[in-house]
């Protein structure tokens, strides 16, 4: 490939993504050391009145992060939500992926399609569906409460609870878990299981000694694909969690939209970025270890 | 018609070609034969124009081709996996080179039909490559490469994707086609049987160099090195020292076995005391239970070590003294079990003095 | 024994499928319910769809969504095709990271960092800012689709074209481009769908008066749950279903997205 065609291919997308992805991320890092403007947002670098530039930086925003334990607790809580959601997705998704990978070749595509299809309906529509289900007048809440009433327990509200948030997050992210798992399980040679049982392994032993260890790369891939978007989630806790279930994403949104304290919002965003990069790094490393012994 | 002078090429630290010289005549069916990594494909890609040599010249009818892009060379290639354009019909595939050369539309149609007739697939014009069998794709790829009448047709292991039966049939078709069109073919393969069957001349390549260039029968009967003897067909290689020689014969001492006398090919000269290799093709060795059944001059006694019954022939590995195995091939022409030998049988092994070919060891 | 386990697996999987589809079914069913509440079934009606088509804000949002998706998909198709080809043919380090990161990062990060950028550059928040933002995450999907298509394409096809007399440009336009077309179309349709679907990035980069369908739904459900939302949700589901089916005709893995 010639030098010109090489440049023609790489430059336009690289420049676009530098301007609209890499540079904004760097600016955000700077913003985390800057001051809020007079009317919120970010203090300008350039003053229109006297034409002077101001580049002074401050640790204030970062100090605020560590001043109280509120924000660290918030991170821990968000990580907790992400762990629980990922674990439930794995618990629901693994048997599903296993079932699809062991069904007849002809039916697999259809089953896979059925798993993916809900994923393609609008994100907000899927949240909205759970708002209906969890609403106080909804059938589910009514049924649960009438059941609780039989045992003399006071009625509960499912809406605006951590449970509602987790159920909805599992619902939204389940396909992200199933697909990499399926992609992995599908490649397993069925003769391996025959060989294992031929060598005396029982059903459970076959699963734990053969299928599960071989599927670990898929488990890691699926877990990362669920964990990362859940960690940065704000719409689901916003709509289903009320004030009870707040995640880091909600506070970031609050800083940028309601409080308009952009420097501190940037601090939280940078923390989330670091957490994400660390997770991806950890995940790919574990994935590599599994592959290479 | 094609002259290659001192071509060298390095890929990083790997020397793919180390100064290759070749002269290929017009109308020749020429084969580059060698194991993978010997440089044959690199050489072919240079003639086509996909690679540039580090040094050397490629002269096509006297004009240096180095630096000319592939589309401007009167050279077309039949690719290993055919490289038929999957989004075009057979007719569109064959028309492609003509369109690139801006041939008139009505002439294109006629020439495409003619090309299809030539490869015996006149009614496949509208089919897509995916709907064709391996052999049909092969024929279309050849038709496409020939439709513009190149000066030179390059074929890169074109039969390797076909099954054994189909391959034999395509070999015959290729020979006939080449005779018909009279275009020079340069054929690359690692299959020595294919090379022997198809070619007028073969260049055996090894580690970026031409090891031997000759006609098929010459290569088979008079290999010039251990590599060529080993690469082409099955061969027994016996180490020996020359004890005496004249213009037509040499007396040898086969190491661990004993003295033999061999006739020398015209080009081979050896001197007394020289170490050399005696090559013996398995089919030229005879085995019998007792000596009087054999008429050949050279004979040794041995013991059957292994037998491999292959239907038409049986391979016997005979142990001569001290663990030296000699492979012999016997046609199963009769029905008598008495002609067969079992492991452990003591036998006499014999060959004609002109059966062996001598290779001087450096 | 093994059969028994397979049956348990099937039973469990069926339950998960119910979990996946029941919520969506509820949304669709209530969109035809003749009641202001998403509670008991009262009777069949199409009046919520009628309300929808009288709602000028909703119609503007729909028009905005289509406009944004069309432009984003078109530009992302162009840039993504270049990126996908470059990534499969050249050994690059920067570009693959730039292409994949916006897809892999939580979308809120892309949203807020672009918000800062647009304000700094004095780009007013509106359709243009949303389109610029959507292109950023759409490039990755097109690039991956094109890269996969390039990966399954035999290099010798291009060599064959050159060998048979085509110039580099002719080889590209007659061979490479037609063979890549399904990958480009599938990627562009996916980009279109994802753009229509996007809530988070749009939330941060859209200004007043450039509301999209997801933003409109968000502001409606924030206030009160009404069956009009069910109606627009149902329509959106039908549209994405059509788009995704179309995309999968060009690339059978398009449905899986990047996963």
Description:
The complex is a heterotrimer of chains A (293), B (362) and C (259). With 293 residues, chain A is an all-alpha fold. Chain A has helices at residues 3-31, 60-67, 70-102, 105-120, 123-134, 139-150, 162-185, 190-198, 203-231, 235-241, 248-258, 262-291. Chain A has 2 domains: 1-31, no CATH class; 69-291, Orthogonal Bundle (MetI-like fold), CATH 1.10.3720. Chain A contains 12 helices and no strands. The longest helix of chain A has 33 residues, at 70-102. The model of chain A has no long low-confidence stretch (mean pLDDT 86). With 362 residues, chain B is of the alpha+beta class. Chain B has 2 domains: 2-227, Rossmann fold (3-Layer(aba) Sandwich); 234-360, RNA polymerase II/Efflux pump adaptor protein, barrel-sandwich hybrid domain (OB fold (Dihydrolipoamide Acetyltransferase, E2P), Beta Barrel). Chain B contains 8 helices and 20 strands. Chain B has helices at residues 40-48, 90-100, 105-118, 134-146, 164-181, 192-198, 216-221, 226-231, and strands at residues 2-11, 14-24, 29-33, 55-60, 63-64, 75-78, 152-156, 184-189, 201-206, 209-214, 236-245, 249-254, 258-263, 275-280, 286-288, 298-309, 313-320, 324-331, 346-351, 357-360. In chain B, the strands form 4 sheets. A 6-stranded mixed sheet of chain B has the order 6-7-8-3-9-10, sandwiched between helices. A 5-stranded antiparallel sheet of chain B has the order 13-12-11-14-20. The longest helix of chain B has 18 residues, at 164-181. In chain B, 37% of the residues are buried. Chain C is mainly α and 259 residues long. Chain C has helices at residues 2-30, 47-54, 56-89, 94-104, 107-120, 127-151, 155-163, 168-197, 200-205, 213-223, 227-250. The relative contact order of chain C is 0.14. The interface between A and C is large, with 87 and 85 residues. Chain C: It comes from Mariprofundus erugo. Chain C: It is a multi-pass membrane protein. Chain C: This is ABC transporter permease. Chain C: Keywords: Cell membrane, Membrane, Transmembrane, Transmembrane helix, Transport.
Summarize the structure.
Chain A is an all-alpha fold. Helix content of chain A is 75%, strand content 0%. Chain A is built from 12 helices and no strands.
